[in-house]
Amino acid sequence: MTVRSAGYRLVAPIQRSVAVWDGGVIYIAGGLDAADTTVGGVFSMDPTSGRLTPLGSLAQPVHDAAAAMIGGKLYVFAGGTGTGSDIVQAFDPATGTGSVVGHLPVALSGSGARHRSAASPIWSVGTTAPSRVPRSTRPRTERRSRRSDTSRSACATRR
């Protein structure tokens, strides 16, 4: 594999944002700006030209989150603004609107997400969770058979 410069730069420095590839477009959301302020802007980028288009904002600014495109919407999981968060946000690129659509069992940040298709679950793995969370409520890996269960969750709590 050969890695080389794309030949363009973003219009402003951003770090610890999420970036998701979807059908020839890269969606970039949240992160930390040059002043280390958590931001919630959402942009689309053409990876060929580097053209960046502002689309709107997340409902809540975050950095160190995880994201996946599902049904044409950008879902952003957890992240934070100084501490981890349990929020799940959806951003609709067609309307430019963001909303909080759910909560994870525990607050996470520094996580990653994987989503292959509508028939597959979303996997979200966090690297930072509060150490004071009782072991009985910490997230665990859960795997369910597609034949025996039509609802699949990416994150569950021990009971």
Distance from N terminus to C terminus (CA atoms, Å) equals: 45 Å
Uncertain segments of ≥5 residues (pLDDT<50)? 114-159
CATH superfamily: Kelch-type beta propeller
What name does the CATH topology carry? Neuraminidase
CATH class: Mainly Beta
* Helix-strand category: mainly beta
| Radius of gyration computed on alpha carbons | 16 Å
**Proportion of residues in helical segments:** under 10%
Summarize the structure.
By secondary structure, this protein is mainly beta.
List keywords for this structure.
single chain; 159 residues; mainly beta; Neuraminidase; 4-stranded antiparallel sheet; 0% helix; globular
Could you walk me through the main structural features you see in this protein, from its secondary elements to its overall organization?
The protein has 159 residues and is an all-beta fold. The protein has a single domain (18-157), classed as Neuraminidase (6 Propeller). 0% of the residues lie in helices and 42% in strands. The protein has no helices and twelve strands. A four-stranded antiparallel β-sheet has the order 1-2-3-4, with no helix packed on it. Strands 5-6-7-8 form a four-stranded antiparallel β-sheet, with no helix packed on it. It has a two-stranded antiparallel sheet with strand order 9-10. It is globular and about 40 Å long. The model is unreliable at 114-159 (pLDDT under 50).
Question: How would the blueprint of this fold be written?
Answer:
Blueprint: E1 18-22, E2 25-32, E3 38-45, E4 52-57, E5 66-70, E6 73-77, E7 85-92, E8 97-108, E9 112-114, E10 123-125, E11 139-140, E12 156-157
Antiparallel strand pairs: 1-2, 2-3, 3-4, 5-6, 6-7, 7-8, 9-10, 11-12
